[in-house]
Fold this sequence. Notes:
It is globular and about 45 Å long. The longest helix has 24 residues, at 47-70. It has helices spanning 47-70, 108-121, 123-128, and strands at 14-17, 23-26, 32-34, 79-89, 92-102, 134-138. By secondary structure, it is α+β, with helices and mostly antiparallel strands. Helix content is 32%, strand content 27%. A hairpin with a 2-residue loop joins strand 4 and strand 5 (92-102). The chain contains 3 helices and 6 strands; from the N terminus they run βββαββααβ.
Amino acid sequence: MATPLDKVLYTAKTHVTGGRDGNGRSDDGKIEVRLSPPAQGGPGTNPEQLFGIGYSACFMGAMKAVAPKVGVQVPNDAAIDSEVDLGPTSMGYGVSVRMNIKLPGMQREQAQKLVEEAHKVCPYSNATRNNIDVQLNIV
């Protein structure tokens, strides 16, 4: 059962033509990308790369939002290197995600708590929970 939004805070509007061999753009003109299938050496990006960037950015924002609750500050040089796998499943195709989270100078226990709390509130984490394999690695 889907969890409905209590209130819409923002709506992203995009337009894609041609699928994996096409183009995508946002209605405000802030993003325009050429698309190519993954691992084929085409001139464009692919949905898996865009998903990795989107999820990582969203997760970083979630960490910053929950940091006061956990009693820490997200380091200025924090970073997330994501890996999004694409492959066949029994139901067609699917993705899995590994996020390698770098929180320089933060104690391991604090970093773990921060990541756990962020995973509870991150919109991408909530959208993917129990749907795809997501690994959160503190490195």
